[in-house]
Amino acid sequence: MRSQPWQTLPDRFPLLLRRQRLAAAVRAFFAARGYTEVETPYAVAAPGEEVHLRAIPAGEKWLNTSPEFAMKKLLAGGAGPIFQLARVWRDEPWSDTHAPEFTMLEWYSLGADMRALMDETVALLRATLPPEVTCRGITTRLDEPEFLTVAEAFQLYVGVDVLATADDASALAAQAGAKLREGEDWEDLFFRLLLERIEPHLGRERPTFLTHWPAAQAALARRAPEDPRVAERFELYVCGIELANAFVELTDADEQRERFTVERARRHALYGPDWEMDEDFLAAVAQLPACSGIALGFDRLAMLATGARCIADVSWLPD
């Protein structure tokens, strides 16, 4: 008979106490930097606009998949800089590194460019974790991060010029020596190659910042001034785990609406109609100050802090 989560609590309790100390250290880090901790609703009218977003209904609303929309409304109202340890939900199965209900650490830095936000993220890791962390058999030292653009990663590990193949799945497959699957488009193949050939190399001996994503894969990020084919987005990998996702925020409401319209059409074609466009959010985008934002998986950070093998070990009552 399978043990219930409360029955395994004695074995997990030391890890959970370390999780609580980690949360206190995170709050102390942001307080020292002048951030305000905020709380936003868990049930929302519009949980996001990503194509493959799997939100969970909550009556006439939806459980929050990210506090991003709500926090940007607060930024537009003048609350920043702000951070939040938010409970979020996504209708996706359990795995060793993902739970359908989890805690997201999200913060927004005013006037910060992408490098400044990466520097602050490294400072957070160094303030809350030991200099060297080991998780799931991989040891990472936090003293010297690696910075790699998506284009560089695809050239290095796949041998393709990924930006030159944009929207041409056949060209990307030919360069990569991959066979297109039935119904697979460029974006599907992009993420398959990223998952299978690139991510296994990231965030191992040192943290990896994977930067400058194709613009179509960063719907809420500003395009890079030096190359409009890419957006100012980065993801962070530590101990081989994707830990965080960040943007230099888009502040053009018209462009944001255009991007959402495209994503909504694709999502509805795949999964059917869902929620209305969040017009209040689009009005807030027009009032956003220049800022950068990042969402970091707090449960995964707790795994790094404790060396836990799976996310359930650092969850109070995994279900």
Tell me what the structure shows:
There is one protein chain. The protein contains 9 helices and 14 strands. With 319 residues, the chain is an alpha+beta fold. It has one domain: BirA Bifunctional Protein, domain 2. Strands 1, 5, 6, 9, 10, 11, 12, 13 and 14 form a 9-stranded mixed beta sheet that branches. A 3-stranded antiparallel beta sheet has the order 2-4-3, with no helix packed on it. It has helices at 9-32, 68-76, 114-128, 150-157, 169-176, 186-198, 253-271, 279-285, 298-306, and strands at 36-37, 43-44, 57-58, 61-63, 82-89, 101-110, 132-135, 138-141, 146-149, 208-214, 223-224, 227-238, 241-248, 291-297. The model has no long low-confidence stretch (mean pLDDT 95). Helix 1 packs across helix 9 (298-306). Helices cover 35% and strands 24% of the residues.
Structure summary:
Helices cover 35% and strands 24% of the residues. The protein is an alpha+beta fold and 319 residues long.
Q: What is the second-level CATH architecture?
A: 2-Layer Sandwich
Examine the coordinates and then state which fold CATH places here, giving the name of the CATH topology. BirA Bifunctional Protein, domain 2
Mean pLDDT reading: 95
The unreliable regions are none
Name some characteristics of this structure.
alpha+beta; 9 helices; 9-stranded mixed beta sheet; 319 residues
Q: How is the secondary structure organized here?
A:
Elements: H1 9-32, E1 36-37, E2 43-44, E3 57-58, E4 61-63, H2 68-76, E5 82-89, E6 101-110, H3 114-128, E7 132-135, E8 138-141, E9 146-149, H4 150-157, H5 169-176, H6 186-198, E10 208-214, E11 223-224, E12 227-238, E13 241-248, H7 253-271, H8 279-285, E14 291-297, H9 298-306
Parallel strand pairs: 1-5, 9-10
Antiparallel strand pairs: 2-4, 3-4, 5-6, 6-14, 7-8, 10-12, 11-12, 12-13, 13-14
Helix pairs in contact: 1-9, 2-8, 5-6, 7-8
